[in-house]
Amino acid sequence: ESHPDLSTRLNERWPVVLEDEAQDSVPLQEELLGRLTSDRGHWIRVGDPNQSITSTFTSADPRFLRRFLDREDVTGLEMQISGRCAPPVMALANDLVDWVCDAYPVVEVRASAFRRQHMIATAAGDPQQNPSAEASGIALRGYEHRDEELLDVARRAGRFAQSQPECTLAVLVPTNRLGFELADILRAQEVSFDERLQSSRRARTVVDTLVAVLAAVADPLSSRGLAEAFRATHPASIDEPGKQPQPSPVEELVPLVRSCYRPESLFYPESGVTLADAFPPVQALRDADLAPIEELAVRVRRWVSAARFPVDQLVLAIAHDLFAGEDLARAHRVAQFLRRRHDQNPAWRLLELAVDLKRADAAREVLGGEGDAAYEPRPGQLTVTTMHKAKGMEWDLVYLVSIDGVEFPGTTEDYFRGYQQHLGGDPAELARSQLTALIDAGSTAGAT
């Protein structure tokens, strides 16, 4: 607005603008592209309002693209032909759109959820033919309990992967939390799978290890923090993706590390003081037990010395002692993230940065989505991912789990997860905690 000549110059530089995935465009992006193409109007927007799935966590909303399509100066061309799915799946999707637009119980949703449009199958001779209707189908199955559902789906998916190794298959979950539960069940059943959730188990291990180590470096005199760092630097081994981790052989030493009552003797022993003197004299300590603890003490002493450097350099020093290959690359991304967070919050100290890294959304910002662009489903290998991340991907068989009123509330009277937090807390939960506190008081209680 202040520099109209800039818009003119940019319009001459880019006479045509092609915007893909326009249904996920945020208002600012739409405004900028509109100004950029205001002189010539060569703005091509490709998108499907019915596949807008980012409005719950961004400022995007499908109503913006629908409003654009309804403008008089816009020529809309519907690309209805699709060869991706079988006719029964396509018919169900079309029926869902019609039912929501015509008969959804909440009237306001009828006009806002979907744009009425239908997919049609490819014609004979098209190079991308739809899967045949005879070899396709849709099955609905009800369960009494979530655990029953996950166990049965895991069993069925594993059996299909073994019996049909030439086919691709996936289990799509509504939330990462549910995906983690399903992944644990698949490991217990020894079903091999690709985990495409918020972040992989290996990526979360890298973040968790750095959180524990940074906390120990920030407070090296804390025996609890030292024990957590010891456990984190000796994680359970994961030999193959999708397999159950094997316990660390030094896990039984964690209580011993936690019992350290003279950490100064552990890190900086005086003359005549041994490593065993840092622990209570309640049991005979074997050299084999003390060796991994001494190794950690040497590392922590080195890391504490490096704590005077900027946090990203400290993280890289720690990472080069602990990681290699892809894990080292992940640690580099953590270092960059913590450097940005420190620049944004210069008063934060190391422990506060470690706490910030531990947040779920921080881990997602650092490592979420790694490798998604290059991922391709493999025949005979099960994929576990969320319904959001599955957009644009294809499998021969797909299991959709937890299609219920808990994960997908359908009316204003249904329970919406997390709504109490927006209201300042759950009053019922607060009342129960107060009652519990009163009962625990025994015969005498005082309230202020």
Structural class comes to mainly alpha
H/E order of the elements? HEHEHHHHEHEHHHHHHHHHEEHH
The outline comes out as: globular
Query: How many domain modules?
Result: 3
Instruction: Let me know the number of strands.
Output: 6
Largest sheet: 4 strands, parallel
Order the strands across the largest sheet as they lie in space.
Answer: 4-5-3-6
Overall mean pLDDT score?
Answer: 84
Segments where pLDDT lies below 50 for 5+ residues?
A: 237-242
Cα separation of the termini = 59 Å
Strand content: 5-15%
Q: How large, in whole angstroms, is the Cα Rg?
A: 28 Å
What is the overall number of helices? 18
Helix content: 40-55%
Present the secondary structure layout.
Blueprint: H1 4-13, E1 17-19, H2 27-36, E2 43-45, H3 62-69, H4 87-103, H5 107-112, H6 146-163, E3 169-173, H7 176-188, E4 193-196, H8 201-218, H9 223-232, H10 254-258, H11 263-267, H12 287-306, H13 311-322, H14 325-344, H15 350-358, H16 360-367, E5 382-386, E6 397-400, H17 419-422, H18 427-440
Parallel strand pairs: 1-2, 3-5, 3-6, 4-5
Helix pairs in contact: 6-7, 8-9, 8-14, 8-15, 13-14
Textual characterization of the structure:
This protein has 18 helices and six strands. Helix 13 (311-322) packs antiparallel against helix 14 (325-344). The protein has three domains: 4-69, no CATH class; 146-198 and 372-400, no CATH class; 201-367. 46% of the residues lie in helices and 5% in strands. The protein is mostly helical and 448 residues long. The N and C termini lie far apart (59 Å). It has helices at 4-13, 27-36, 62-69, 87-103, 107-112, 146-163, 176-188, 201-218, 223-232, 254-258, 263-267, 287-306, 311-322, 325-344, 350-358, 360-367, 419-422, 427-440, and strands spanning 17-19, 43-45, 169-173, 193-196, 382-386, 397-400. Helix 2 (27-36) links the parallel strand 1 (17-19) and strand 2 (43-45).
